[in-house]
Amino acid sequence: MSSLFNRKKIIPRYKIIAYVMLLLGLLIVGKAFYIATVQRDYWMKVADRLKNDSVPVKPVRGNILSSDGRLMASSLPEYKLYMDFQAGDEDRDSLWESKVDSVCMGLHDIFPEKSAAEFKAHLEAGRAKIVKGRNNNPDTKGSRHWPIWNRRVSYDVYTEVKKLPFFNLPKYKSGFHTEEFNSRQRPFGTLAQRTVGDMFGAKDTARCGLELSFDSTLRGKLGYVQRKKVMNKYLSITEKPAIDGADIVTTIDVNMQDLAERSVIDELKLINGNVGVAIVMEVKTGDIKAIVNMTKCSDGEYREVKNNAVSDLLEPGSVFKTASILVYLDDHKCDTNLWVETFGGVMDMHGAKMRDHNWRRGGYGRISLPRTLEVSSNIGVSRIIDEHYGKNPEKFVEGIYRTGIASDLGIPLVGASPAKIRMPKKNDRGQWLNWSKTALPWMSIGYETQVPPISTLTFYNAIANNGRMMRPRFVKQIVKDGQVLMEFPPEVLKDRICKNPETIPMMQTILTHVVSQGLGKKAGSKNFKVAGKTGTAQIWNRFGNTAAYLLSFAGFFPADDPRYSCIVCIQKSGLPASGGGMSGVVFHNIAEGIMAQDVKMRVSDARDSLSVMLPDVKSGNILAADYVLNQLGVKTNEGWNGSYAEGNPVWGKASHEKNAVQLAQTKLYPKGLIPDVLGMGARDAVFMLESRGVRVRLAGRGKVVEQSLPAGHAIKVGEICNLRLEI
Prior knowledge:
The structure is a single chain. The chain is α+β, with helices and mostly antiparallel strands. Helix content is 33%, strand content 23%. The protein is built from 21 helices and 30 strands. Helix 10 (254-271) packs antiparallel against helix 19, helix 12 crosses helix 15 (393-402) and helix 12 (321-331) runs antiparallel to helix 18 (503-517). The longest helix has 31 residues, at 7-37. It is flat and about 140 Å long. The relative contact order is 0.08.
């Protein structure tokens, strides 16, 4: 051992160092233990903020389809456009300087609402933050996500922006990037909006309607992608694939829905109505073919704000009289020979005045039971019910329940409610708890009850269906990738709503007479028989005054072989107010329109065998013209190939030559140029222009005689072409 090593001096020093290192080790282990136990939750949350190794993948929401498979609601991508001014290398700045003017001009062409100068000022403001950052100013917030346009755009617009100079470079070089949203679109606009339903913006959260009722089916299931860091890059590995939502096929017929909406809105505007409801139901299946709920908004326009058809619990008025008389006929073996005295249209009913609508004109006097419904006599119906059920009102209400009008229909729409018709109750001493002497007579004519329009229609539909009550059906199927996952077949609620098999045919006859010779004449048609009942009820406010009138007409058509039932309810303030004269008119328009849609006519039926004149053929799709001319027996030049039903349009012009029509194909301008639409009809002209991205405005009718953008003009995004048509 070296003499330089002094054990007594060195060993104590080593011991001190060892003790210090041991102490530090114990402190590190203790701190690690403290972090791993006491502070574990905190640091796990910090880790979750810093890394996201399991990213959710949203599925595509399913579609809502009409009864014939047309889209009523679908999910389409929308984009928000951004710039990252910190992306790219050193050459990026000089490239931006050379391209910024052309970029802003292109943006102005795509978004005409904003000038090129405004776009340039906006983009330069975002870029200026990078300059501040380079001068050691930390104010660069937002420069990596600077919005180019303040609203979402469609995929078509996004692709147009992506084609612009500089933006067409890779995003890590140009900085142009997007944020994608799953937007819910309705191809038919607001058609059946409250029934189809709405979504809360980009949150993918259903608000109402079928969107809400079938949310779990439409939504699908989330998928997950695991992010792994390999070689300083993150790789996305699918851990659980997203399962897209299924589609639901509704019973709604788009054509009937459009017809019903237009009919309701036209009448509401004419009479200054507040609320309009219309429901069309298929008799045999209970399918809801159309459902309209229009409310007058503060700006005077009518929109669907609430699903009144399934949620409005109002006193139905005289349409309820049919149920009252049906109960009497069923309990008294269809005795229609009963006569009732209505006096001069005014009668004291247990201390309260009962009036008929014509009491100022002397009333109806003595009338038969069927006539009480034909003229909607309050006194006649209430006297019949009061005299036969006054001592036993429970029997009458039990009969009403038997008709199914108070049944819970199980409507798959949030807010739907069954009718509320109270059953008379007595206490232990035999005293009425919820009943008065006037309750029965007023209930028999539609007061002291609360019945939503869909319950009333379901009852009338059962009468049309020979006593079989069908549950209203809104959805037929759930499908996915062409496969039916679930069927919702028509469901019978009650096989018979009457005890006596003769009751329903008798009521069908009476309701037919209401339209043919009673107060429902305006709901009738010259082309087919209609059956139904009018209704006019007062809606009272909390002060006991008349706040509005509920005008109704419920019935079915054709009466001799019912196919559809329909109810129309209108709420309006002030007089005049007539169920037959207002709601009945809407019913008439809907019924005539639906029956007209079912008329199938051959093109050859339009041929006039005595005429030798050739038809005037417009320019346009001459393949379609050739098909129609051949069906009419008009000669055309030969040599056409293809099918009108399956082939693409063949564009050309037509000319007359002796007893034939000569069709000649014309050369089309390229996609980027305005086509020549002179001589075409409105349909072909609009198709050709709008298929090229040009908006069209029409004036007049007949053939196109003038187009504001000449043929061969280079198309710019957002351009409008005005077409003038003359016969």
